[in-house]
Amino acid sequence: MRPYVLCAAALFVVALVIAGPTRADDKKPDDKKPAADDKEYTIKAPSILPKGKSIKVTEKTTRKEAVKFGDVNMNKEKKVRFVYVEKTLDADEKENKRKKFSRAYEEAKEVEGDESTKLPYHGRTVIAESSDDKWELSAEGKPALESDDMAVKELAERINQSERRQEALYPKKAVAVGGKWTMDSKEVAKLFEGPGLKVDAGTIKGEGKLLKVYKKGDKQWGTIEYAITFEASIQVFKGIKGELKATVDQPLDGSPTGAKASSRIKLSGKGDLEFNCMKINYDISADVSTEGEFAEAK
Fold first, then answer.
1. Are 109 and 80 in contact (CB under 8 A)?
2. What DSSP string runs through 256-280?
3. Measuring CA to CA, how many Å separate 132 from each of 87, 99, 129, 145, 218?
4. Is there a contact between 244 and 261 (Cβ–Cβ < 8 Å)?
5. CA angle 204, 286, 246 (to 5 degrees)
6. Distance CA 3, CA 78 (A)
7. CA dihedral sign, ordered 2, 197, 153, 167
8. In this structure, are residues 77 and 112 in contact, taking their beta carbons and an 8 Å threshold?
9. Does residue 143 have a cis bond before it (omega within 30 degrees)?
10. What's the total number of domains in the chain?
11. pLDDT above 70 coverage of the chain, percent
12. pLDDT class of 245 with cuts at 50, 70, 90
């Protein structure tokens, strides 16, 4: 299994807030005061980052993979860290869509064991431009980004998934603290799709819950919890079971004023494959944890 296939299903969690945050609050968690339990709140998906505005993103991901294919066993643990400033260069704010943006990467590294590797766009500015509902990437200066490079492919998938509309994850009606809602399985399936990953929409069970609400400055914020289970195929591997849990802190009105998100997704499956006229058994698993923080770039 290729890394960008394994992590694709977890990417949408970061996308929940990456489209809109611009400023984080300095208050500690203890300063958050829960609101009255009987009041209901409307929760909106984040709006786009307006043209000319910038955010600084810090994101950490840990991936653990285990693959058994016949007599062959492969185990891997990799950590990835990104720090970058993202700026919207062009947008259609009426349609709530961005057309072009840049990411100036201060850091883009992978760590596996004792070895640290800088990704091809580490220390560079990447330009993402929308074309036929797909984001095309380029880089300022030379050398050009190699589209066939595995790390560049993964970045392209991350960006294409992070820019998808997230309304399917939010409640259609106002909810009280502790209130839950069920997500539309077909719409959620679209958020999971990635190279080699095919989610069975009929198996998706997704639920959101408003854990608490609190004030940050003049904004009403909330902590939202997500729990989603599904079945999928990854390339030739069938019957993969997935479980995702995530927590997001954001303004309830969807305004771009800062955010924080964390997620953990587990994938596992076993079965048999026909290979050279022989049946070979496989047993695969992946555990992907991601944390992201978003703040205004000065």
1. yes
2. SS-EEEEEEEEEEEEEEEEETTEEE
3. 21, 11, 10, 20, 39
4. no
5. 55
6. 9
7. negative
8. yes
9. yes
10. 1
11. 86
12. very high
Q: Which of 138, 141, 144 is nearest to 101 (CA)?
A: 138
Q: Which two tokens stand for residue 249?
A: 């802190």
Q: For residue 260, what are its two tokens? A: 């924080």
Q: Considering only 4-13, 154-163, 227-236, which range has the smallest mean pLDDT? A: 4-13
Q: Output the six-digit token pair for 288.
A: 């992907």
- Summarised one tens digit per residue, pLDDT across range 94-116 is 887 899 999 999 999 999 988 99
Q: The pTM is what? A: 0.81
Cα–Cα dist 199/189, whole Å: 6
What is the pLDDT at residue 255?
A: 78
| Predicted local distance difference test score (pLDDT) of residue 3 | 38
Distant-in-sequence, close-in-space partners of 117: CB < 8 Å, separation ≥ 6: 109, 110, 111
- Closest of 191, 228, 237, 255 to residue 17, by C-alpha: 255
Enclosing domain of residue 134: 3-296
pLDDT digits (tens, 9 = 90+) for 146-186: 888 888 988 988 888 777 777 889 999 999 999 999 999 99
